[in-house]
Write a structure and sequence with these properties.
globular; 16% helix
Length: 142
């Protein structure tokens, strides 16, 4: 059994026009994140390259578990016209920007060379206590 896992979350949107990023580097460096929801199947961990967001509820659980390799920051959330058409009257929970600062295969949260999210067993246990129905999880080979 693996000690670390490669996690590919649901993609429920894209970088919004309010995002500020430096595209002269790869992956782009994002200094301000606006997550524009196009659809949402309900998962509490989401991505849009090169960023990850979590529900505030999941973020609190990750902090409470004393996990390493991430910071939480503010994210501006907007919804597209398509989202409004598909989910009339649907409200979204509060989301936080999950800034991954750790090293893949070492810390609880890290990024592989391919920019895939890599989490420890302890982190995966916390994630699995929340909604992750549309997240692909595989053993991380390093």
């Amino acid at each position: 059994m693996s000690d670390f896992w490669s996690v590919e979350p649901e993609v429920a949107g894209e970088l919004g026009h309010g995002s500020v990023l430096d595209t002269s580097v790869h992956p782009p460096h994002v200094s301000k994140l606006e997550y524009r929801f196009i659809g949402w199947l309900g998962d509490e961990l989401l991505e849009t390259f090169p960023c990850y967001v979590v529900t505030e509820r999941l973020g609190v659980a990750l902090i409470s578990a004393c996990l390493a390799g991430f910071e939480l920051d503010d994210v501006d959330v907007v919804v597209s016209d398509e989202f409004i058409e598909m989910y009339p009257g649907r409200s979204l929970p509060t989301f936080k920007w999950l800034k991954v600062t750790g090293q893949a295969g070492v810390d609880d949260f890290g990024l592989s060379h391919e920019h895939t999210l890599v989490v420890s067993d302890a982190a995966l246990q916390q994630l699995r206590q929340h909604t992750l129905s549309h997240c692909d999880i595989e053993e991380y080979g390093g």
